[in-house]
Design a protein that fits this description.
It contains 6 helices and 8 strands, in the order H-E-H-E-E-E-E-H-E-E-H-E-H-H. With 193 residues, the chain is of the alpha+beta class. The protein has a domain of 127 residues: Alpha-Beta Plaits. Helix 5 packs across helix 6.
């Protein structure tokens, strides 16, 4: 019969319309910005840099290896390696990024930079409200704006952050030298023949 598809579609629409008054799950419209839908754990938006200590400059995990800069498809990451070394979050002298910029007007949130980082230094943020009135300089995120603490990372991606911390702790334990076995006490001199 002609028009049965239209009638079935209208029945679905009517059922959802009436059901939305009785079931909260059926409500699709969210009154943004007063209400916000919770973002899923694997939501990603723009990259951030993770640091482990209280000082963002001293605890930055990034060692300016520039792998993320090379692998970025739109080439929106710009890194300048430092001339000197400073102790990283584990106390080992490392290079650090003197300049670390990401042009978020070009970034396509592909997460390739996160996947290629061997130091777990770059992760994806959930912040999506980054609109500004300026067109150019405000969309260039510098190292100071990109740096976020490990506790912040735990708050936005708790499961992933726990796995990353576990891997880093395991790697640090492997690098520590094993404690030397205790020496046997010296033998007492024998008073024999």
């Amino acid at each position: 019969m002609i028009g049965t598809g239209i009638l079935k579609g209208m029945a679905v629409t009517a059922r959802n319309f009436v059901g939305s008054y009785f079931e909260k799950e059926r409500l699709i419209t969210v009154q943004y910005p007063e209400e916000r839908s919770p973002l899923p754990e694997n939501y990603r938006n723009f990259p951030i840099l993770i640091y482990d200590t209280n000082d963002a400059e001293a605890g930055l995990r990034c060692v300016a290896c520039k792998i993320c800069e090379k692998e970025c498809p739109p080439q929106c990451i710009y890194i300048v390696k430092s001339e000197d070394k400073k102790p990283d979050y584990m106390g080992k002298p490392q290079f650090y990024p003197a300049v670390f910029d990401i042009d978020i007007s070009v970034c396509m949130s592909c997460q390739i930079c996160v996947e290629v980082c061997p130091f777990e230094a770059i992760k994806m943020d959930k912040v999506f409200e980054l609109s500004t009135r300026e067109r150019f300089d405000a969309l260039l995120q510098r190292k100071s704006e990109l740096s976020k603490s490990n506790t912040y990372y735990h708050s936005i991606h708790p499961i992933e952050a726990a796995e990353v911390d576990g891997k880093l702790a395991e790697a640090a334990a492997k690098k520590k030298p094993a404690p030397a076995p205790p020496k046997a006490p010296p033998a007492a001199p024998s008073l024999g023949n």
